[in-house]
């Protein structure tokens, strides 16, 4: 394994761990927001629409930010019955196809976000007044990082095949 490959893997691992750290902080934020909303409603008879919007935003961001970490560490949801039943070149081709499908998903999603935000980027969220770009930024960052992790995994598959 080359030093450059190891460094890239280490940096991607650190980046995905940072995303999981942010996701854990968001989980704490969701808890605080929901408890604050329940307390405000039940004890003070006031609604906090901004807390509801913020907890939804943080929940979605949390899920997206955890995804690259799971893929990097091979802990993502995957159907492996077919690839597990294969050996050699067939198995390698199946694994490469799966990574290419992940890359295709990332490319289509990023393009979809681009097209969507061309229109929706001008607007803000109703309760918090945050620009839509900021609302969707965790998902954009996550999908871009997911694509990088998938490219890294493709490189590892190619290197493993070259060494075999």
TrEMBL record:
Keywords: Cell inner membrane, Cell membrane, Membrane, Transmembrane, Transmembrane helix, Transport. The keyword Metal-binding does not apply. Residues 30-159 form the Tripartite ATP-independent periplasmic transporters DctQ component domain. It is a multi-pass membrane protein. It holds the Pfam family DctQ. Its main location: membrane. The chain crosses the membrane at residues 12-34, 54-72, 93-114, 134-154. It is found in: Cell inner membrane. Part of the tripartite ATP-independent periplasmic (TRAP) transport system. Belongs to the TRAP transporter small permease family. The complex comprises the extracytoplasmic solute receptor protein and the two transmembrane proteins. This is TRAP transporter small permease protein. It comes from Halomonas dongshanensis.
